[in-house]
Amino acid sequence: MNSTASPTVFVVDDDISVRESLELLIGSAGWRAVVCASGAEFLSRPRVPTASCLILDVALPDLDGFDLQKLVADRCDLPIIFLTAHHDVPMTVRAMKAGAVEFLTKPFDEQVLLHAVRQAIDKSRAAVAREAEIRALRECYASLSQREKQVMALVVSGLLNKQVGAELGISEVTVKAHRGMAMRKMKAQSLPDLVYMTARLGLAPADQA
User: Which of 50, 56, 103, 182 could form a disulfide with 92 if both were Cys (CB 3.0 to 4.6 A apart)?
Assistant: First the structure.
C-alpha cells in the first residue's frame, strides 16, 4: 500500500444531503472522497492502496454502523469516525472501545470533523507503513533456506556460532556461512537488527527452525 498518495475518505450515510456536503468538504481539504449510501455498497468497493479512513453513520438502512465496524475490525489501516443524529453516551463509549477515532453528533462542526479526519489519516499512514514493513520482512524471510532459518533461530536465541554448530551437527565455519547469508537476505546490519526482525515477524525460535 502507498502511504504517500492522496488519502481516501470513505463516507457511508443514507442521507444524500450529508453525502454531498461531506464530499464537497473532503474535496476542499485535498482528499479523495468516496461516498456510499449503505454498508453493503461500501463493502462491495475494493480496498484502496493508500491511507484512508471511514466516516460512518450509526443508523443505516441495512447494516448499522456498529455491525459494519465489526466487519472491518481487521482493517487497522481504516480508522472510523462515527456520525449520529442522537447523542448517546453508552453508544459513544461502545464505538470508542471498538477503536473509533471520533464520535460526532449531527449537525457537526466542519473544523472538528476535518481535525478528526486528519488524525484518522495519520493513524492510517502509520498502519500502512507497519504493514509494508512486515510484508517486506516476510518476503525476505521466505527467501531463506531451511538451514538458514535454523541457524537464524539459534543465533537470535543467544547461542554462539560454536554452540549453533553443536546443536545442528555442522561445523562452525558452515554456521558462519549460513549466518552471513541469512543476515544478507534479511538485510540486517547487525545481530540486534536480526533480533528485532524476528520479533516483528512474531517468530519464536521453535517457529523458525
Answer: 103
> Would you kindly state where each structural domain of the chain is located, as residue ranges?
8-134, 143-208
Q: Which CATH class is domain 143-208?
A: mainly alpha
Contacts of 148 (CB under 8 A, 6+ apart): 178, 181, 182, 185
Name the β-bridge partners of 98: none
pLDDT for 135 equals: 93
Positions of the chain with pLDDT under 70: 1-4, 204-209
DSSP category for residue 201: H
What is the CB neighbour count within 10 angstroms for residue 12? Answer: 25
The model's pTM? 0.75
Alpha carbon 151 to its chain centroid, in Å, reads 30
Helices (H), 44-160: 65-71, 89-97, 110-142, 146-156
Task: Give 7-52 pLDDT, tens digit per residue.
Answer: 999 999 999 999 999 999 999 999 999 999 999 999 999 988 889 9
Cβ atoms of 1 and 128 within 8 Å: the answer is yes
Q: Are 58 and 78 in contact (CB under 8 A)?
A: no
3-class SS at 107?
Answer: coil
Q: 113-125, pLDDT tens digit by residue?
A: 999 999 999 999 9
CATH topology of domain 8-134: Rossmann fold (3.40.50)
